[in-house]
Amino acid sequence: MLMAAHKNKTGPVWVIAKQIDCRLLAVSTQLVGQARKLADELHTSVQTILLGDDIQRQAQALISAGADWVYLGDAPELAF
Hints:
80 residues; alpha/beta; Barnase, Chain D; three-stranded parallel beta sheet; two-stranded antiparallel sheet; 2 helices; 26% strand; disordered N terminus
């Protein structure tokens, strides 16, 4: 009897992170941590979106919290 290998049919777990004045909100890292647990159960990745200006440091914090990918919208026009 042949059995097919288990294939992941689940897409990534997405988190939209929020920052104000270049400060990442604590809820964003908490959500990434919970997303990491779910992604591990589903054998998938955590992908995060972060918008703002001069936010490289915040992106690193999201990776440290468990994000596999952080997509940045980094531009002065996105400062808030």
